[in-house]
Amino acid sequence: MYRLHGFCQSGNTFKAAFMLLALKQRFECVLVDFMNGRTRDAEWRAGTNEMGEAPVLDDGALRLTQSGVILKYLSKKHGAFGGRSPEEDREILRWILFDNHKFTSYFATYRFMVAFGPSKPDPAVLAFLKTRIDGAYGIVDKHLASARYLVGDAPTIADISLSGYVFFPAAESGYDIERSHPRIAKWRDRLKQIPGWADPYAVLPGARIAPKWVG
Ligand SMILES: N[C@@H](CCC(=O)N[C@@H](CS)C(=O)NCC(=O)O)C(=O)O
Q1: Cis peptide before 86, with omega less than 30 degrees from 0?
Q2: From the CA of 53, how far away is ligand 1's center (Å)?
Q3: 49-65: per-residue pLDDT in tens?
Q4: Which of 62, 102, 149, 151 can pair with 136 through a Cys bridge, CB separation 3.0 to 4.6 Å?
């Protein structure tokens, strides 16, 4: 059985969980107590992930980190969600790189600061991040004007990667994609139809936290 290390606020962890659910694979969750600094712990880094990040996936003795690597590994191993040609394979990588650099990273940072951060965020930092989110979300929203999925005509690991954070409640980020990016909202709703999909808070470990600084 797979072991997925992560926590319920983590959309990056959800990317791996969504893939495992869609593949109908059983997995056990290992809570990473991120909110109390676990990923900064030297012992955790030495034993689990030198990069100090969740998710981490164990497949027996094999330990994988970086959601993109995990998705690619699972896609190859189970022969699913990998696209239908070498061209689609390259496109998938292109979107996963864009996701890790821009689509997920700014949004995840913004949401962490406004929902779960230890102190009231600096408005100038939030304004900067919001500009970066608007840029990345605008690009994906435009792409989805003529496509049901990011690559090809069926869901791939590109969709699973970019959707990691779009299933969380808008109240956590104050970012209402139904209003700001309706094509992303519709794409999110299509992805929810993939058999196996479940709400991140229903499948990932850890306690829910009420948003702290939104508004
Ligand atoms: N590119 C990484 C990002 C992972 C990531 O940033 N994970 C967050 C939790 S959602 C984390 O552990 N952050 C620790 C830190 O930035 O110090 C991936 O896709 O796996």
Answers
A1: no
A2: 4
A3: 999 999 999 999 999 99
A4: 102
Given this model, what pLDDT does residue 183 score?
A: 98
Task: Ligand 1 pocket test: pick from 7, 8, 12 the residue with the most ligand atoms within 8 Å of its Cβ.
Answer: 12
Determine the distance separating the centroid of ligand 1 and the alpha carbon of 12, expressed in angstroms.
7
- Please determine, for residue 141, whether its predicted confidence score (pLDDT) is greater than 80: yes
Residue given tokens 């990667």 in the structure block: 161
Spacing, Cα 120 to ligand 1 middle (Å): 21
* pLDDT tens-digit readout, 125-135: 999 999 999 99
* 27-31 β-sheet, strand order: 27-31, 2-6, 56-59, 62-65
Mean pLDDT value of segment 54-80: 98
Structure confidence at residue 215 (pLDDT): 77
- Quote the pLDDT of residue 188: 98
> Which of these, 197, 176, 195, lies nearest to 185 by C-alpha position?
176
Average pLDDT, stretch 57-84? 98
First to last CA, the chain: 42
Burial status of residue 181 (CB atoms within 10 A of its CB: 0-12, 13-18, 19 or more):
buried
- Of 7, 32, 39, 53, the one to substitute when testing ligand 1's pocket (max ligand atoms within 8 A of C-beta) is 53
Structure tokens at 197: 């999909």
Index of the ligand 1 atom closest to the CA of residue 13: 10
